[in-house]
Structure formats: C-alpha cells, structure tokens
C-alpha cells in the first residue's frame, strides 16, 4: 500500500509525501491547484503522481512547468508528455485530458531518479505560463480608446476560445465499449458480460465526471485503482457497486479493475449523466508471465497483484498478464496440467483455443519446472517439451523476446539451458536463459519457508528481472 504523508514544502526533503500549490492558468478568470505526491521511493528512484485542478475558466489545453532543486530527473511518464532540460520540466496534456472545466482536474505521473540524499518537491509551478498566485484571479480587459462609437457590450468583449480539435466520441461503459482496454485473456463471447481468464487479467479505461460504478452479476472479490492510486479491495460485492463513495473532482479520471475470485463477470460501468469513457492510452508494450503458483502469486497478500510479474509490469509501466495457475507443470502428467499445451487455451481450464490475434506480447517470461519433479518427469522429456514449447510460442509471437527462468529451487537447470541453446542454434537469437541462483534467501524471502516467495521476495525478483527484461522490449528501468 502506498504511504502518503501530507507536509509542507520545507519539511518534505527526503520524505514520501504530498504537497499542494495554487497556480494561475492564464487568460481571464484563472487559477489552479497542483497536488504533487511522491507515492514511492527507493535507492536511486521514485514515483510521483501529479493532479492539476483548474480553479478558473475552462481551458482547452494545459502545460505545467516546474524546476527541480536537487538534481532530480524524469525517466518515464504517463498520461502527459513530459520533457526536461536541465532542472526545468514541462508536462503537456495527452490530448484526451486537455480540456479542463472549472473545477476539473487531470492526473498524470512519472518515474524519476534522485541523488539518494534529498528529493524535495518543486517549490513552485506555472500553468500555461502563469506563476502560482494562491487563488483564482481575473485578468481585466484593456481599456477601450476614446471613440465616438459605443464600446462593445460586456457579453461580447471576451475573445472567444478557439474551437478545440474534434475528438472521437466517448464510450458508454458497456463491456463492448472500445474505450475499455482489456489486458490478458478475456472471454468476450457474450455482449452482456466479459469474463477474465487466467490470473492477472484486468481492464483499464478513463472516464469523465465525478463518480463511477461497476455492475457485477453476483458476489465477487476485486481490486480497484482510480487515478493510479492504491488498489482498493472490494470483498463479496454484487449488483451495482459504487467505486467512488466520495465523489472525485470533475474531470477525466482513470480506472483499473482486477478480479481476485468469485463471479468474475464484468457487466459494464455506470457513469454520471452526460459522462463518457475515454481512451486510457495504455502502454503499447505487453509482457506475459507464464508459470505455476509462484507466478500466480499463491500465498501473497494480493495474490496476482503481489506477484513478481505484476510488480515488474507496474514498475516498467507496461501492460502485463500472468498465464499461470497453482500446481501446473510444463509437461502434462496425471494430476498435473501441462502448460506446454494449456498455455495455448483461452483459460486455465477448458479446451477453447486462445485467439493470439487479440494481442501481441513483446516478451514472454517463463518460470516452469518446479512441479514437474514431483511428477517424475525425466530430464530428457522435460528438455524436449521445453524446446518444443519455446518453438510453439515463437510461432505465435515472431518478434517477442522469450525468457526461460531458472526455477528458484534450481530444478531442470541443465535441461532448461539446453532448450534455450537449441532455439539459439536454430537461428532464434531472441531467446534467453535467466540464472536466478541467489536471488532469494530460504527462510527469509519465502511465505512458507522455501516454497513460495513472500511479497518482499516477489519485489526482489521483480527488481532482478527489470534490467534483464526492459532493454529487450525497448523501455527504461525506473
């Protein structure tokens, strides 16, 4: 869970927290509030959420500027285009969140680097070139020159705002709404309700207005994040569920929903009258994590959301999904479903084939072999199955980087290496072996001694994977 500590600018140095500024938005009645929140911080890096609230007249585009005072640099941003020159930073709207009504807000975020000594918030901001003033102000119209003709009436004196570039209409929040992005493997066969398959599937969208509700057929457990905030757990809810018991500021907001268990049938969103969904602009990159209970997050506090695949995907700000289930093997045996065949199906059970044209993975990270040893799979059988598995995945994703992780119990190490080597020898250089020896400490990084990593253990795994995976898919490590 993210920790947010409200404090003054002077007291915030080196502390995770929130700071608010009042800023002028320029032209006529203008003003705004900026909430700058360091949501997480680690050695050499940090993540910040920024919310801009317009207190003045409506604007059709915004540019927020500030200067860092301690050498911080922005490394990656989302929901805004952020550039930096020296200490000066500029964030420009992403298009879909350009229009801000009076009282409306837009949220964006970024990852940054810092010197491990001080990470204070910017002392001031400007919005559309106007410095912070503390409240909304009015810019008087220039006095008219003496003239025999009467001056224009007050209602016509203001220069009309330019007509914004038309944008495609927003969506209605139904399951088939094109403004909702479904990540992972979803059964979309029924227009009345979409169903996530495998673990770690979720959907994201943006919406206008101040409230949002979700429609669920029957009791379900789910996690909901709004505007990039912490994942809030809803237990056993059903029917029309209010996700904003405290209304949000008017504006465009983001929503992510991930189901944990229960009747996981998404039947749509309920928006404010006149409100619509909007394009959430998710990352174009996607990573699949393939495995068993470890990859699925078994015994973790939030299951899939605490597992290394989810943690890594969130850190890299890419789409991610876990094709994993507890107890699964690579090779199908009595009492153990084999991922070498089930991976190609819509769900973790059933025989319906997955339509691989639905999305393209940029990387597939495989962690299999922990359970095969208990089902007496021989080394030669395992190696042959792994080699064929890699070949079959390559046929589905011709350009993806494929990674074969060494299991944390160091099982089938030679066979896994040999499978990767066989693919490399066949001319496929975009297949890699990941040596995980020493990543986790038994009795320290596990939730059950030495079987399933704890939440902290999964974070360690994600931190080790980040510099391995990121350059292969063209993203930077925060």
UniProtKB/TrEMBL annotation:
PROSITE patterns: CBM2, PROKAR_LIPOPROTEIN. It comes from Microbispora catharanthi. The keyword Signal applies. Keywords: Signal. Residues 25-135 form the CBM2 domain. GO terms for biological process: carbohydrate metabolic process. This is CBM2 domain-containing protein. Residues 133-160 have a biased composition (Low complexity). Coiled coil: none annotated. Residues 119-184 are annotated as: Disordered. The keyword Manganese does not apply. GO terms for molecular function: carboxylic ester hydrolase activity; hydrolase activity, hydrolyzing O-glycosyl compounds; polysaccharide binding. Pfam families: CBM_2, CE2_N, Lipase_GDSL_2. SUPFAM superfamilies: Carbohydrate-binding domain (SSF49384), SGNH hydrolase (SSF52266). Residues 1-25 form the signal peptide.
